[in-house]
Amino acid sequence: MENLYDVLIIGAGPAGMTAGIYAKRAELSVAIIEGTGIYGGQILNTYEVENYPGFESISGLELGDKFRAHAEKFGVPFIDENVTKITDADKIKEVTLENGDVLRTKAVILATGARNRKLEVEGEERLSGCGVSYCATCDGGFFKNKEVVVCGGGNTAVEDGIFLSRICKKVYVIHRREEFRADKTLVGKLKSCPNVEILWNTKVTAINGNEQVESVTVTNTKDTTDEDENQTISVDGVFVAIGTVPESELYVGLASLDEAGYVVANEDCKTGTFGLFVAGDVRKKPIKQVITAASDGANAVNSVVEFLNAY
Ligand code: NAP
């Protein structure tokens, strides 16, 4: 009889790895499938995590490593492959991997998280990796004593601004409104950085340069739509931090998605589809943090156990 898992978890961010730990502790047969080769999800882009209890300050990289080490200590197996398909075969789910393997399982937890949203302006794609970056902690070091722009007004943009201010000569934080949605503590820190200039009611409309970023074109979002109002700011780098979009393309037709593509489920992480559960940032929910992702991982396994008991 070929292997039949109790539960397969897709995605090795905080939600997936917590689910793995809880599943092992519930003595379920489980594996975590992660196609990127990266363990920790979006926290790896975070320089400093200061709101995960028990760690006053820890780098995202280190926290991701700790999650993985914790999961490994409980014997959670990791499968380094992309999932290409999830199909139903009677009461069993078949999870097809990119290498052609088909894994059979009673339940699946979708924990694929979210990816960076693009500005979708002229020059962004062409200069991606040539001055345009989506990860300040990964690429900030390339901009030592240089001038950069950060786009966005959420926690990521504000954290990126603070982080880059320690490396760069000057950091422009460009936000389309006149108020950040980031936590007040972070906003206070950003505003106290002497080399940070915040441009309110402004958006980047083009990223310019031949081989490398040389400047951005910006326009005011409030007072005018007149093209003459465009300004050019000379910078060496552009960090795009305007939020995320869910990694849920695979789930179209499998689970209920909202208009933005997030999987609709309550805190119990039940998708409403037989054997299908969801955890972490890919779930529609009001607050996306490491702690809520980890919480989802625990809740999802609780629901899986309930499901398996009735199986
Ligand atoms: P976010 O909270 O969704 O913020 C995205 C920001 O980008 C918003 O300010 C938004 O403007 C702006 N924006 C969106 N689309 C834009 C566009 N096309 N052009 C220009 N600006 C655009 O995303 P995030 O900062 O990446 O955070 C994602 C989640 O992770 C959040 O729940 C956040 O709290 C969490 N997070 C937490 C921490 C932490 O707790 N330390 C750190 C990082 C992230 P508007 O404000 O006008 O909508």
Commentary on this structure:
The protein is α/β, with parallel strands linked by helices. The protein is built from six helices and 17 strands. It has helices at 14-25, 60-73, 136-139, 155-165, 184-191, 290-309, and strands spanning 4-10, 30-33, 78-79, 83-89, 92-97, 102-110, 114-116, 132-133, 147-151, 170-174, 196-199, 202-208, 215-220, 231-234, 237-240, 244-246, 276-278. The strands form four sheets. Strands 1, 2, 3, 4, 5, 6 and 17 form a seven-stranded mixed β-sheet that branches. A five-stranded parallel β-sheet has the order 8-15-9-10-11, covered by helices on one side. The model has no long low-confidence stretch (mean pLDDT 95). The site of NADP nicotinamide-adenine-dinucleotide phosphate has 23 residues, from helix 4.
Summarize the structure.
By secondary structure, the protein is of the alpha/beta class. It contains six helices and 17 strands. The strands form four sheets. Strands 1, 2, 3, 4, 5, 6 and 17 form a seven-stranded mixed sheet that branches.
Q: What are the key terms here?
A:
6 helices; single chain; 17 strands; 311 residues; binds NADP nicotinamide-adenine-dinucleotide phosphate; alpha/beta; seven-stranded mixed β-sheet; 22% helix; five-stranded parallel β-sheet
